[in-house]
Amino acid sequence: MKQKKQLNVEVGARIKSARENAGLTQERFSELIGMGTKSVSALERGTVGVSLSSIQRICQVLSISGDEILFERDIKENDVQALAARLARLSPEQFEITREILNKLFEAFSILN
Predict the structure, then answer these.
(1) How many other CB atoms sit within 10 Å of the CB of residue 43?
(2) For the chain, first and last CA: distance in Å?
(3) Burial class of residue 17 in the structure, from the number of CB atoms within 10 Å of its CB (0-12 exposed, 13-18 middle, 19+ buried)
(4) In this structure, are residues 61 and 33 in contact, taking their beta carbons and an 8 Å threshold?
(5) Which of 4, 16, 37, 92 is the most core-located residue (most Cβ within 10 A)?
(6) With contact defined as beta carbons under 8 Å apart, do 13 and 46 qualify?
(7) pLDDT score recorded for residue 86
């Protein structure tokens, strides 16, 4: 039973890290995945387990693979690769919007330099 609890703690920590990397608060994240804020908090602390359907929603919202949540892999391993992987999972319409936003950001950054 203790091993199962430890797994919940590890998975919860990975979910929290991925949520923070995505720049989401617990409140906004809970809205996006259809869970209560208290449930998300308990999940991230590892006091409760996570269902497969919840993992699927979490991965969709965060645009990450299940491997990042389920297995011991440092989500911050390489920020460029992680970002590219998230971009690759976007729909063509979402990707186009993201590309336009990034181009505007790069343009703004070039003006500042």
Answers:
(1) 24
(2) 56
(3) middle
(4) yes
(5) 16
(6) yes
(7) 79
CA distance 16 to 49: 14
User: Look-up: residue for tokens 């430890």?
Assistant: 6
Q: What is the pLDDT of residue 73?
A: 62
pLDDT of residue 65: 84
Q: Read off φ and ψ for residue 53, nearest 5 degrees.
A: -65, -35
Angle between helices 52-62 and 2-21 (to 10 degrees): 20
Token look-up 């990450």 returns 64
Q: Is the pLDDT of residue 15 over 90?
A: yes
If one counts every other C-beta atom within 10 angstroms of the C-beta of residue 104, the result is: 10
Report CA 66 to chain centroid distance, whole Å.
10
The token pair that represents 45 in the structure block: 């602390």
Q: How far apart are CA 64 and CA 82, in angstroms?
A: 8
pLDDT in tens, 35-87: 999 999 999 999 999 999 999 999 989 888 888 888 876 545 567 777 887 78
